[in-house]
């Protein structure tokens, strides 16, 4: 199978009915980067910057981070990299930060909430990204945005740092794209102005699903209540696809489901055209997308919906089993 995936490396993920899905990889450590070549990823759809903070025993310095981000961009050789700003709190606690004792950390003070309430670290990180990019395109996204106002504030912080760097006479990025991760259902119902303002949206399905179903992503006991192929969840994703289409907002999906072939198929059938996943999943996902008709997959999901079934999993699995290999 490895050999078969290698032979697909330079081929696009195009379905039998001619729909192309762009496949990107998720990364976070320098060790992930060599996979960019081998996997055939079109770029890095999610760079989890917190990993660099988690593997240290003290807060990294700005210049250290700038060097590191520049190396990531070097390794990407002009392919886009979406740097997600620090996503700490919840299950990710920095060993050198005072742990905050919260009853429910997943819904507590985490991600962009920390970045906006205590902006020192966020500003340092944004400066490091700007310095790393000098003269090259830069793509930044903010994690766990739940409201339009948070996005406005985070984006303003980015633009402030950009102006500051410029006024200091430093080189600035050739282009700058600022996006939001959609990880809470609330953001899907943000005002139209949000969709018009953001350069792109990336669905963080791991968190989005956990809040959609109120089922902890870490808890095995509620695993079956956390089904991506649940018709309600697929309908919700479709509503997001439609809202983005109205404003022409680029949309991608970067949770773990993007790397699970049957889940990835359902995401593509609901209209997602950019998926970002762990590099080893690109081959299997591409192999499946190339041998299906997405319109037919969509019709199978609609049959499950019309039949009042909770999930499209059984029907999609049966349909796939009946396809020629
Ligand atoms: C997600 O929530 O789907 C996501 C990509 O972010 P993380 O898994 O790092 O929370
Ligand atoms: Mg998340």
Describe the fold and architecture.
This protein is of the alpha/beta class. Helices cover 46% and strands 14% of the residues. The chain is built from 15 helices and 9 strands. The protein has helices spanning 2-8, 35-39, 50-54, 62-76, 112-117, 119-133, 148-167, 185-188, 192-197, 205-213, 231-247, 261-269, 282-290, 294-306, 313-321, and strands at residues 13-14, 20-27, 44-48, 81-84, 138-145, 176-182, 200-203, 250-253, 274-277. Strands 1, 2, 3, 4, 5, 6, 7, 8 and 9 form a 9-stranded mixed β-sheet that branches. β5, α7 (148-167) and β6 (176-182) form a beta-alpha-beta unit. The protein is globular and about 60 Å long. The two termini are 13 Å apart. The mean pLDDT is 96. This is phosphoenolpyruvate--protein phosphotransferase. Keywords: Cytoplasm, Kinase, Magnesium, Metal-binding, Phosphotransferase system, Sugar transport, Transferase, Transport. One of its GO terms (cellular component) is cytoplasm.
Structure summary:
The chain has helices at 2-8, 35-39, 50-54, 62-76, 112-117, 119-133, 148-167, 185-188, 192-197, 205-213, 231-247, 261-269, 282-290, 294-306, 313-321; strands at 13-14, 20-27, 44-48, 81-84, 138-145, 176-182, 200-203, 250-253, 274-277. It has 325 residues and is of the alpha/beta class. Strands 1, 2, 3, 4, 5, 6, 7, 8 and 9 form a nine-stranded mixed β-sheet that branches.
């Amino acid at each position: 199978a490895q050999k078969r995936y290698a032979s697909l490396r330079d081929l696009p993920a195009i379905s039998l009915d001619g729909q192309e899905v762009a496949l990107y990889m998720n990364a976070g450590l320098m060790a992930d980067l060599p996979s960019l070549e081998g996997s055939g990823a079109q770029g890095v759809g999610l760079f989890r910057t917190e990993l660099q903070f988690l593997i240290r025993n003290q807060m990294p310095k700005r210049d250290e981070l700038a060097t590191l981000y520049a190396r990531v961009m070097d390794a990407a050789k002009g392919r886009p990299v979406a740097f997600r700003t620090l996503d700490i709190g919840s299950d990710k606690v920095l060993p050198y930060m005072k742990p905050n004792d919260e009853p429910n950390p997943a819904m507590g003070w985490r991600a962009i909430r920390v970045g906006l309430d205590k902006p020192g670290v966020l500003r340092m990180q944004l400066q490091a990204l700007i310095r790393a990019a000098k003269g090259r395109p830069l793509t930044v996204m903010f994690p766990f945005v739940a409201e339009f106002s948070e996005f406005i504030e985070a984006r303003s912080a980015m633009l402030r740092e950009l102006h500051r760097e410029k006024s200091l006479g430093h080189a600035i990025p050739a282009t700058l794209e600022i996006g939001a991760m959609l990880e809470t259902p609330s953001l899907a119902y943000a005002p139209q102005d949000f969709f018009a303002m953001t350069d792109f949206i990336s669905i963080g399905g791991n968190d989005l699903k956990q809040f959609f179903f109120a089922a902890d992503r870490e808890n095995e006991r509620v695993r079956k209540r956390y089904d991506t192929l649940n018709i309600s969840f697929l309908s919700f994703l479709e509503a997001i696809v439609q809202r983005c289409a109205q404003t022409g907002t680029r949309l991608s999906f970067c949770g773990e489901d993007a790397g699970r072939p049957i889940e990835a198929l359902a995401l593509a059938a609901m209209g997602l055209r950019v998926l970002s996943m762990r590099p080893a999943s690109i081959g299997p996902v591409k192999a499946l997308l190339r041998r299906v008709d997405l319109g037919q997959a969509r019709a199978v999901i609609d049959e499950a919906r019309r039949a009042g079934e909770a999930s499209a999993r059984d029907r999609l699995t049966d349909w796939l089993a009946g396809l020629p290999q």
